[in-house]
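Intended use. Records like the one below are meant for learning the mapping from a protein sequence to its folded structure. Do not use them to infer anything beyond what is encoded.
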Amino acid sequence: MAAGIEIRKGPRGTKYRARVWSPRDGRHIDKTFDSLAEAKSWRVDALKALQDGVLRPSSKLAVRDAAAAWLEDAKAGRVRNRSGKRFKPSTLRGYERVLKLRVLPAIGTMQLSGVRRRDIQDLVDRLLAEGDTASTVRNALDPLRSLFRWAVRREEIGLNPTRDIDVPSDEGAGRRRAATPEEVPALLEALPEDDRALWSTALYTGLRRGELRELRWSDIDLDEGVICVQRGLDDNGEIIGTKTEAGAREVPILSEVRRELVAHKLRTGRSGDDLVFGRTARTPFVPSTIGRRAKEAWQAAGLTPITLHECRHTAASELRAAGVDFKMIQTIIGRSTATRTSAASTCAKRQRRGTRI
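Structure written out for the chain above:
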């Protein structure tokens, strides 16, 4: 019999157990196979993996327990994202939710070291078969990828089973609704008067929904025609930093937007740190309510509705049609890192000086 392999006979037939010794851990690592050839092949690979430092004894930690430990470390800042930054609380809440609903029911009781790439692929295929979109499945994989990277760094496991998983792209991905230049005035005209400033700002500046919810009059300089974007509001009501590195930026106010903002300011009587579009000066608007009210108005006028997120695509299209350079468009809508530092500094100066009208 080959070195490191022993025959094990039992009621289910002959099995072959291959073993290697890990000096680092002071214990054997073994695996049982149905054939001698498989046992020999594994042992050769295992010896090489030991030499490379990527093979460790099996961890008995369950995926469910590992996920709980990983989330605790992530919330405490001991685990960072791939950019080396702390996870945003809203991101971790989303990860916790998707683990609970989609991942742990399927593989939560498995040992972390026992999860193989085929197990992750089976999970992906099952979620797709149950009707989840490819985008939803990719979102479910995000916390798993981070969890297994964490486990590899802690040497709980040697290999990351989430690598090279096949997830198809969404059908129709890339098709985005963007209102045409001819549509925009009609869409705004059909809205209730109190909602026009919000949708005008969304359609012409491309601010994100969370940025619109947290926008305050101290962020707006109507004299110089700019909006300073530095933060947003997530769906749990928590104020967060801008979504990307490029988030802190100055956005120009076009004449159409300025007209609506001036009228809105006079109508509401708000100023300073008051919310621009809130239900009250301190309570942010509810996106579903705003969206429903606008949809009803547009359908009554025979117009095709648009969402706040789609307004970002419309703003980019408007700027492109106006001949604005692509890099500048990216900067305006918050996807370029070129002007982050100067924009943040200038915004702070404007806020210290105060807003004038």
